[in-house]
Description:
- With 223 residues, the protein is an alpha/beta fold.
- The chain has a single domain (2-221), classed as Metallo-dependent phosphatases (Purple Acid Phosphatase, chain A, domain 2, 4-Layer Sandwich), CATH 3.60.21.10.
- The protein contains 5 helices and 10 strands; from the N terminus they run βαβαβαααβββββββ.
- The protein has helices spanning 13-20, 43-56, 67-76, 82-99, 104-111, and strands at 2-6, 28-32, 61-63, 117-119, 123-126, 159-162, 173-175, 180-182, 192-198, 204-211.
- The protein has a 5-stranded mixed β-sheet with strand order 3-2-1-9-10. Strands 4-5-6-8-7 form a 5-stranded mixed β-sheet, with no helix packed on it.
- α3 packs across α5 (104-111).
- The longest helix is centred in the middle third of the chain and has 18 residues, at 82-99.
- The radius of gyration is 16 Å and the shape is globular.
- The mean pLDDT is 95.
- It holds the Pfam family Metallophos.
- One of its GO terms (molecular function) is bis(5'-nucleosyl)-tetraphosphatase (symmetrical) activity.
Amino acid sequence: MGLFIIGDVHGCLNTYIELMEHWDPKTETMIQVGDLIDRGKHSASCVKLAFELKSTFKDQTIFLKGNHEQMMIDFLKNTGSKNDWLNNGGFQTMENFKANDLDIHFYMCWLNTLPLMWSNEHVVVSHAGFSTAADDPFDVEDPSGLLWNRKPLLNLGKVQVIGHTPRMNGKPEFSAASNSWNIDTGAYRNICLTGIRLREDGKFLEAINVPTSEKDVDVEKVF
């Protein structure tokens, strides 16, 4: 199976749906790097759609946990700072779940089960990547771990694919030094959402960029 890997969605439902039209579930595994929620207008619907896709295409979809999912989990379980998530789009996300009559705690439980990474013999995918500075990359509180890292990436001898740090030019970036792709292209910043198509052996085939739908963000509130 080939790989279709999607960057940070951040509540941009309409943009996400348009990008998924390029995914072929018969020949490709779709992997989403986390941060489905916060900042865009449709966080609840993005999570609901992901949950339904996983239920329908169990073997063809991989949803990874991002730092925004972790902040939401920590907030709802009263294990994190109450202001961290609320000040990073959490308040709007909570209101969006209420407006859509969706049980945020039910979906929080599902999000809490999401893995931090996916890999095969040639490719490894995570939200923020394996860093040169991480004490424990799988520690959800490690600032240089797989959820939070913004430090240089390790070259793992595999193609590494991450999101987390927006590429403000709207183009995914390949680093030869770390053999890695950053595919966060700032959907919530009214730029675009990106998916890259790789062969199972990690060979890059193409990037697909979908401009952010005007239905997904309040342009005057973009941050």
